[in-house]
Amino acid sequence: MNLAERRMAERFTGAIPIELKQGMGLTRDFSTDGIYFETDQPLAVGEELDFFMHLELGNPANPLRIRCQGEVVRLEPGLEWTGVAVAIAAHLY
Questions:
Q1: CATH number of 24's domain
Q2: How many domains does the chain have?
Q3: Which domain holds residue 44?
Q4: How deeply is 9 buried, as exposed, middle or buried, from its count of CB atoms within 10 A (0-12, 13-18, 19+)?
Q5: How far apart are CA 66 and CA 93, in angstroms?
Q6: What single DSSP character describes residue 9?
Q7: Mapping DSSP to helix (H, G, I), strand (E, B) and coil, where does residue 80 land?
Q8: Cα 81 to the chain's mean position, in Å?
Q9: pTM of structure
């Protein structure tokens, strides 16, 4: 079974800023139950994350901050950035 067949929610492509406790990230793709972003922050598989997605919704000066909680399920180390896949457990508006 390939990864696409295991996904339960439709995945969207887009660059949305992610605010982590110690830094920032930028999404590559996301859905209601998962997100993939790149960051320079050190993370570990199995780590619980509490983070914010910054949605501009037509007003870059006052973005909507959506708080999410999830678990890191995959890391893809790169030279400058690490790709991080997170299974989202909760959205807290």
A1: 2.40.10.220
A2: 1
A3: 3-92
A4: exposed
A5: 5
A6: S
A7: coil
A8: 14
A9: 0.83
CA-closest candidate to residue 7, choices 37, 29, 31, 24? 31
| pLDDT tens-digit profile, the chain (93 residues) | 445 556 577 888 999 999 999 899 999 999 989 999 999 999 999 999 999 999 887 777 888 889 999 999 999 999 899 999 999 998 776
> 3-class DSSP state for residue 60?
coil
Structure token pair of residue 70 = 């999830």
48: Cβ–Cβ under 8 A, 6 or more apart, which residues?
69, 70, 71
Token pair for 9: 């929610």
Residue at 28: amino acid letter: R
Q: Which residue has the tokens 């037509």?
A: 58
